[in-house]
Design goal:
Blueprint: E1 3-6, H1 8-16, H2 18-32, H3 42-47, H4 49-58, H5 67-81, H6 91-109, E2 114-117, H7 123-131, E3 137-138
Antiparallel strand pairs: 1-2, 1-3
Bound molecules: calcium ion (2 copies).
One calcium ion binds next to loops.
GO molecular function: calcium ion binding
Protein name: EF-hand domain-containing protein
Keywords: Calcium
Amino acid sequence: MPVAIIDGCTVREFVEDTDAFEKAMKQRFNNLDSDRDGTLSRSDVRAAFECVRFLGCALDMLDPNTPDQIDQLHDRVFCKFDTDHNGVVDIMEFQAQMRDILLAMADGLGAAPLQVVIDAGGLLEDALKHGEGRHVTFAAQAP
Ligand SMILES: [Ca+2]
Ligand SMILES: [Ca+2]
């Protein structure tokens, strides 16, 4: 997985650049929407397990180790996203939650640049691409 240097400011700039942010989120949403009906159902989210696992950690939920915990985590992540509780996550719900998550991460990163391993879900990767050429440095590839 690539390793990069990123700080909270880079993440924040990405979220605040509405056009870039919405475009990246739409792409991510479409990737998760495996049946292409324009909403994320539980099974769509379930298929994106690594992403959910990462989000669960980002949301300070448990890091799942057992099948029961994995089920629980899926439910909790899904409920968190489905704010109107209609059983599916639409693009607006998705964007709103992702914005909160990324801003929480930005707060966590603070002003001190941090070396982060870019996760497979690629949340921070979007922010990195956005900041590339400005103040983001890509370090050597991790083994
Ligand atoms: Ca769907
Ligand atoms: Ca909903």
